[in-house]
Amino acid sequence: MVSVENLCKDYGGVRAVDDLSFEIKDGSVTGLLGPNGAGKSTTMRMLTGFLAPTSGKITVCGADVAENPMEARKNTGYLPEIPPLYPDMTVKEHLKFICGLRGVPGDKHASEIGRVCEALNITHVSGRMIRHLSKGYRQRVGFAAALVGSPKFLVLDEPTVGLDPEQIIEIRDLIRTLSADMSILISSHMLGEISSVCDSLVIMRRGVLMAKGSREEIEQSVRSGSRYEITAGGDGALIERLLRAVSSDAAVERISDSSDEHTFILSADKNTDLRGAIFEVFAANRQNAKLLSLKSLDKTLEEVFLDIIKE
Question: Which residues are CB-contacts of 270 (< 8 A; sequence separation ≥ 6)?
């Protein structure tokens, strides 16, 4: 498990990270979100030992990053947004060099290189010079380097930058597979990516923790009411009256009509789940109004994110 306790980082008179605390559990994927200048990159650099905190404590697999940095780094893999690669080396040469840095025994280099190349689907380019590779393949070589030595904690900064849609799907699947054996922290501006692979979120703004927890927990904390889209058959005026009877604070808006179907948006100020009540009013009036569809209009991750970081 990775633990961050009361982490602070000052640059002169500017506090880039302010009293940040969170945990990343074993076998989980945590998304680190925030607008530009939120302190995400600074936080990741402190987690990986590249930057010393002003105060606070970070432990990786039981090792204090400040007091026992080599043990913590041994258990940490890091993919920066721009991977540090040697362009005049072949992929295989670069990964062999990383094996040496990570303390992989010499007789294990070949098998370790084969393992990470297969994981990132780059075996077919392992003999090519890195400078001849596309941006997407360079990104995958950097990811492979982060996996050398089988770290227990993986930090990924924009891991799918430069990849095509098919490669993005492959990387997302790989992240899900890897999470069975390690803790993973991902920072990305692609909220769809975060939503698809992360178990929990940490949201920052101006160095301060704004929210943490599962997506459902965070959505519940910022939700201010409930919204539903209802399509029903029958007399439109009757359907509207039925929907208004669902809740005393309900607002009903008709958004489309056809000859025999009508669609409404029902909004309520409270977070109460109204689906059961909607079904009941239609069941009681099933001779004159037929419920055709009911959809809860939950906020998207983008809407939740904007609600949290807004001034």
Answer: 225, 226, 247, 249
Non-local CB neighbours of 176 within 8 Å, separated by 6+ positions: 29, 197
Q: Residues 239-253: pLDDT tens digits?
A: 999 999 998 878 899
For residues 163 and 149, give the distance between their C-alpha atoms in angstroms, rounded to a whole number.
24
Number of H helices, E strands in the chain: 11, 14
- Neighbouring-strand partners of residue 187: 32, 157
Burial, 90: exposed, middle or buried (Cβ in 10 Å; 0-12, 13-18, 19+)?
middle
pTM given for the model: 0.79
User: Each residue of 26-70: pLDDT tens digit?
Assistant: 999 999 998 888 999 999 999 999 999 999 999 999 999 999 999
Q: Are 29 and 197 in contact (CB under 8 A)?
A: yes
d(CA 229, CA 52) in angstroms, rounded, equals: 51
Closest CA to 98 of 149, 135, 173: 149
DSSP class of residue 90?
B
Q: Which of 236, 76, 226, 230 is nearest to 149 (CA)?
A: 76
